[in-house]
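TEACHING EXERCISE
Course module: macromolecular assemblies
Task: Read the component lines below, then compare them to the predicted structure of the full complex.
Student: A.B.
Group: 4
Components provided:
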Amino acid sequence: MTMNIRGRLGRFAEKCRKHQFLFEELVKRDFKQKYKRTVLGMGWSILSPLLTLLVMRLVFTQFFGRNTSHYTTYLFAGNLVFSFFKESTTGGMSALMGNKHIFTKINVPKYIFLLTKNVSSIINFGLTLCVFFLFAALDGITFRVSFLALLFPIACLIVFNIGVGLILSALFVFFRDISYLYDIFTLLLMYMSAIFYQVDAYAPAIQRLFYINPLYCVITYVRTVVIDGVIPGPGLHLLIVFYAAVAMLLGGLMYKKKNHKFLYYV
Amino acid sequence: MAIIEAKDVSIRYITGDFKEIGLKEYIVRRLRGDYQVTEFWADRDVSFTLERGDMLGLIGKNGAGKSTLLKAISGIMVPTKGKVRVKGSIAALLELSSGFDGDLTVRENTYLRGALLGYTRKFMDEMYDQIIAFAELEEFQNRPFKQLSSGMKSRLAFSIACLVKPDILILDEVLAVGDGAFHKKSGDKMKEILDSGVTGILVSHSVPQVRELCNKVLWLDHGRQIAFGETQAICDRYEQFLKDGKLPEPFEA
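Instructor-supplied answer key:
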């Protein structure tokens, strides 16, 4: 069993080496397509979450901000996680369809398109994360060594996003209206992620229901580390890993099963 | 030792109005029970073998299943029945524009295409100047690809595919484009490559071209294999078919 896994990992690593050049070239292409070589390009990607933050800060402070300590950091943590998820998955959805001219003509591993698409959203997230720490510092947050624990939910979120991206990009080949449905879904998801409000007002049983939402789990993790200054218990760790693994597994299976079917639908 | 071996290859396509109907419509149709997918065989029981250095001409009218067969050989599709065995790397040149991006420059596109065909950066660094020189695009290296004329685009596609020296070269009516001078140059290059021992498949509607370049011919009609074998005999019969429209019984030559 272990040999089998090791053998598979070895083959995967070999495949990665073989496709490294292709990966790099596709990343370059994605960047150039996205920003069209504009100067503002990258800056805009950071500016737009900041604008969202500004509006939320102005509007919601009156309603929710009064009983929440470090409300700016609270809001930003929610926005940071959610906008990363949204950008990565909505961008990822078109990864397969957008490259139909390639994979219907040349035999390349199809998941590579999704992975390269994710590179730019990960870089964006990294930049926004720096701005987040800057704002947290201004908000009077003390920086601790325990902040390193944030690497855990971030790694899981990246895996989760890729998994969801795989699922969406596969579905999008078969059902083109998924993009509209997903827009509505992300809007609803945002309201359920407790980005600008606190869940304390609900009964404990209802509060627990929030944990069904993977994004809420990650947001809560980030807030607990940054605002409360403690690392969450093992339960939340397990839950976040679980969601990431399920998304990845499901996406991987869809690609494996439909690998040669995509061709008929594009 | 066979480089490409296709044995009783049959490929079933699905068509119907299932494309682009969307999830909501799909569910409604499923509930009403009128979700329909029609299947048809794009290729039926196609068998052939190519040795090293063989050049196969793939002929037949539109809808004969030529492109589908090429997809099975290049590994993009999996045969519904039968087997395709391929030894070596394939540089498929299935369509001119495939894999090129209009907004990227000629240089960027060349590297991207090289990467798509499975070559390393080091290899492309070495070959780049030759590719551009052969395509006669030295002055256009930093121009966006979309500004190129279609002839230039096909020259670039041809140069990349031919200069990278694959074991197997698949050409889908690519030679038919380009102006007179390049036409000759590419033809010479093709012959040079063939002499170097590459195995190739050429899809062409030009019978003279097939006669000139290919030593074996596979004739398909509506997915059925009409003939496989010696070039001149099959080409003679094919030209007769093009004139009188009478399809012969499957034969060997």
